[in-house]
Amino acid sequence: AAPHDAASRAQRAPGWEGVVVASKHHWFVPAGLIALSLVPVAAGSARLAQLAGGAVATADNARFVTSPLPVVLHIVGATVFCLLGALQFAPTLRRRTWHRRAGRVVVPAGIVAAASGLWMAVRYDLPASDNEVLMAMRLVVGTGMLAALVLAVAAVRRRDFVRHRNWMMRGYAI
User: Which of 83-122 are b and which e, b meaning 16 or more Cβ less than 10 Å from the residue's Cβ?
Assistant: First the structure.
C-alpha cells in the first residue's frame, strides 16, 4: 500500500492499530438497523413524553400511567440497545477498544430492556386487545433475549469470541 492511503495512515496512528478501513458499503447494515429502530424509538419517545407530561389514565395507557417505572426502563434500555448495538455491526468500529467499551453499555441496556419487558408481561394487566398467547410469546422472547445476552457475556469472558458474536447477534435479532 502506498504510504499516503487511508489504511497506511490508520495503521501508523496511535490507538488505531489493527483498524481496517472499510468502504462505505460496510455501513449499510448499521444504517439499516438504525433505520429499522427509528419507528419503535419514536413510539417510545412519544410514550415517555406522554408520561412526563402527566398523562391522564385511560383504558389504553392506565397500566403505564399507574406504574411507569418498567415502561420507562424498557424504552430507555431498548433505545440504547438498538441504536448503539447497531453500531457494533460496523467493521471499522468493531475493534478492541471501542467495541469493548460500547459493549459494556449495550449489554446492560439489553438486559434492562429484556428484564423490564418480562416485568411488564408478568405484572401489568393484559389489555382487552391482548390474549394469553401474546403474553406467552412476550415471555418466550424476553427470556430468549435475556438468555442470549447472558450466554454472550459468558462466552466473551471465556475469550470464545465466535460464540460471543453468535449469541450477541441472536440477542440483538430478538
Answer: bbbbbbbbebbbbeebeeebbeebbebbbbbbbbbbbbbe
